[in-house]
Write a structure and sequence with these properties.
It comes from Bactrocera dorsalis (Oriental fruit fly). GO terms for molecular function: dynein heavy chain binding; dynein light chain binding. One of its GO terms (cellular component) is axonemal dynein complex. Pfam families: WD40 (PF00400). It is a single chain. The protein has helices at 2-8, 30-54, 85-94, 96-100, 103-107, 144-160, 202-223, 227-234, 237-254, 256-262, and strands at 13-16, 19-22, 302-308, 315-321, 334-340, 349-353, 357-362, 369-374, 379-383, 393-394, 406-411, 425-429, 433-438, 446-452, 461-462, 484-489, 496-501, 505-510, 519-522, 528-533, 540-545, 549-554, 562-565, 573-576, 583-587, 591-596, 606-609, 616-622, 629-635. By secondary structure, the chain is α+β, with helices and mostly antiparallel strands. α2 (30-54) packs across α3 (85-94). The longest helix is centred in the N-terminal third of the chain and has 25 residues, at 30-54.
Length: 640
């Protein structure tokens, strides 16, 4: 590019017929340079030779003053001049000016294309389109409208900032006389009232009241339907679906604010000027236990288990069954209700069982499957999308590994090799036996023994009690196996699960080992009620128990990192917040406590009083928008 700029700054001139003419080559397009390169050189050489043959003396260039040697003709004029192309190029190259800048003819082919110095624009008339029009509030000065505008401006200034703003004011009262007009069509003759004597006996009054009571009954009997017809209508699936939709619409009138809060429709955004986090819980609504049909079902039942649907956050399954053993209240049967947050007034699915229900769990992989554990050790799976269908599969009584109540159920993720099959699940009974069930092409579940807990012998790793017993007495356990209270799956390793026992230990087990545990850790002095892994770190987890404490642990470390304790009562449940890594929710018999590890480790940040109960359950659910976490609690009373 520098060579081309330097070349354009040079000028080549030739004297023709006594006049100096500019013969500097002009740039041409790169596409035609290769074809016109030799053509331009030959044309220039022929013109130069013609001028040399006509002139008698050798002309010199004016710019460089370099003489050009004359070319002698080899033949006469009559025969013409015969020169080869090499001789022409050699003759041209012999000149100083032409030989000095001859290599630039070769560089023309490698020069870049330069844009044209102008653009051709053709203007044609097109239809007129008005995109925007704004009326002007100004007028040209000196016009007829300008005088009126100036007059209005002077009056406005006089009334606002001039002397005219000080005006006298006075209060006065006025009353409009209202004349009531009555047309002739509604005018009536005034009625005359008078007193008359009458006698009514008691028999007449009795007969009159009896007729008034019998008339509506007879009318209703003529226009009422029989009980059998009403039962048939109630069993119609289309009628049930229409009634469910109508109940949702009516419930939205009463629970609209709670439903909007549950769906995170009123949340602060990043554009808000102020955003304050309040450590408080608001009651959205209560799910009151419905009136179950039957004679003994009218008793109030305890809420034994809760489970939120993983595919639809609006659905929650509630198991109504047995009270705690200390309450000394028994019920002969149980129920399972599937509630929807769109209709907190009535459940949308209802299943009845001849024994109390003790556990319930939705499948996280197939959200329409619901596993139900009963008080007699029976386990069954239902499809909630088909309410009138029987269970998908149930466990056989002859192959049951235990007859104790099922305390916990956890689904297991299926491997890629068996992706076509339904996911299996684990069931923990109160006597410490873990069974693995699989859904097969049969009305019965395929069950197998997975693990059996044993009593602790010796001193396990973990928390060591510091209490000193003066007169220690030996005691014998009533059973060989420990009691299983809860079952927790590892968040990362799908084949690892933990069992919480009444001895204050958690046993780490594997699906690949069916006869012994991998690791045992002592975490509390009393029973371990709940265990929850941190959503921010899979190696960090917390436990709570009947020794009034909440302890935070790290895998591989046998001593608690943090111990939280505030009230002298068992902590029934403790969970990590899904939106704040340092916030923990704890539930006991009377309160819901909120801890913030970043602010205070001695006392909870917030305490919310709830209905007092001997045993309280808690379940954590994430709203459909996945932005905030809500906590719902339930106790022996049929409210949540």
């Amino acid at each position: 590019e520098n060579a081309m700029i330097w070349r354009q700054s040079l000028e080549l001139r030739d004297i023709v017929r006594g006049k100096s003419i500019d013969v500097t080559p002009k740039l041409i397009d790169t596409d035609t340079r290769s074809t016109l390169r030799f053509r331009s050189i030959a044309t220039y050489a022929e013109d130069l030779i013609k001028q040399m043959t006509k002139s008698s003396s050798v002309q010199s260039f004016n710019s460089r003053r370099i003489s050009i040697s004359s070319v002698k003709a080899k033949s006469s004029t009559r025969l013409g001049l015969k020169l080869s192309l090499d001789e022409i190029i050699q003759a041209i190259g012999s000149s100083g000016s032409l030989h000095e800048y001859h290599h630039y003819y070769h560089e023309i082919t490698f020069a870049k294309r330069e844009p044209l110095p102008f653009i051709k624009v053709v203007l044609r008339k097109s239809p007129e389109f008005v995109l925007y029009h704004q009326n002007s509030f100004t007028v040209p000065k000196g016009s007829a409208e300008a005088e009126a505008v100036e007059h209005d401006n002077q009056i406005y200034d006089y009334l606002t900032i001039g002397k005219g703003k000080v005006r006298r004011r006075s209060d006065a009262e006025t009353q409009t006389v209202g004349v009531l007009m009555k047309p002739r069509t509604v005018s009536t003759i005034p009625k005359k009232f008078g007193e008359r004597a009458a006698y009514v006996s008691f028999f007449e009054m009795f007969d009159t009241y009896q007729q008034l009571l019998q008339t509506p009954t007879a009318f209703n009997e003529r226009h009422s339907l029989s009980t059998g017809v009403l039962d048939l209508i109630a069993k119609n699936p289309q009628f049930s679906y229409a009634a469910m939709v109508l109940e949702r619409i009516l419930a939205s009138n009463c629970y609209q604010q709670g439903q909007r809060r549950y769906r995170n429709m009123n949340i602060p955004t990043k554009m808000d000027k102020y955003a304050e986090y309040k450590y408080s819980l608001n009651l959205l609504y209560r799910l009151i236990q419905p009136k179950f049909q039957g004679g003994l079902d009218k008793r109030r039942k305890a809420i034994a288990a809760l489970s939120f649907c993983h595919g639809n956050g609006d659905l929650i399954a509630v198991a109504y069954g047995f009270y705690s053993d200390a309450s000394k209240v028994t019920v002969p049967n149980g129920n399972v209700c599937v509630w929807s947050m769109k209709n907190p007034q009535n459940p949308e699915r209802h299943y009845s069982y001849p024994v109390p229900v003790s556990a319930v769990e939705f499948s996280p992989f197939l959200p329409f499957l619901l596993a139900i554990g009963l008080y007699d050790g029976t386990v069954q799976v239902r499809n909630i999308t088909k309410p009138d269908y029987p269970p998908v599969a149930i466990s056989q009584r002859s192959v049951l590994l235990s007859c104790e109540p099922v305390t916990a159920i956890q689904w297991i993720r299926q491997t890629q090799e068996n992706a076509a099959e339904a996911d299996p699940f684990l069931a923990l009974t109160r006597d410490g036996k873990v069974a693995k069930f699989r859904i097969i092409a049969s009305p019965y579940l395929l069950g197998m023994r997975q693990m059996e807990l044993l009593r602790i012998e010796g001193n396990p790793e973990g928390f060591q009690s510091k209490n000193i017993v003066m007169n220690e007495e030996k005691s014998l356990d009533s059973g060989r196996s420990a009691s299983g209270l809860h079952l927790v799956m590892h968040p990362v390793q799908s084949d690892i699960y933990y069992i919480l026992t009444d001895e204050g230990c958690i046993q780490k087990c594997s699906l690949n080992h069916t006869h012994h545990y991998l690791e045992m850790l002592k975490v509390h002095e009393g029973s371990v009620n709940h265990m929850d892994f941190s959503p921010w770190s899979p190696k960090l987890f917390l436990t709570c128990g009947n020794d009034w404490t909440i302890r935070i642990w790290l895998e591989g470390i046998f001593q608690p990192l943090i111990t939280l304790s505030d009230r002298y009562m068992p902590v029934h449940c403790a969970m990590w917040s899904r939106t704040h890594s340092t916030v923990i929710i704890a539930v006991n018999r009377e309160t819901v406590d909120m801890w913030d590890l970043r602010r205070n480790l001695l006392d909870p940040i917030s305490t919310i009083n709830i209905d007092s109960s001997f045993h309280t359950l808690a379940k954590q659910a994430t709203a459909p928008s996945n932005e905030s976490t809500f906590y719902r609690y339930s106790n022996e009373r049929p409210t949540m």
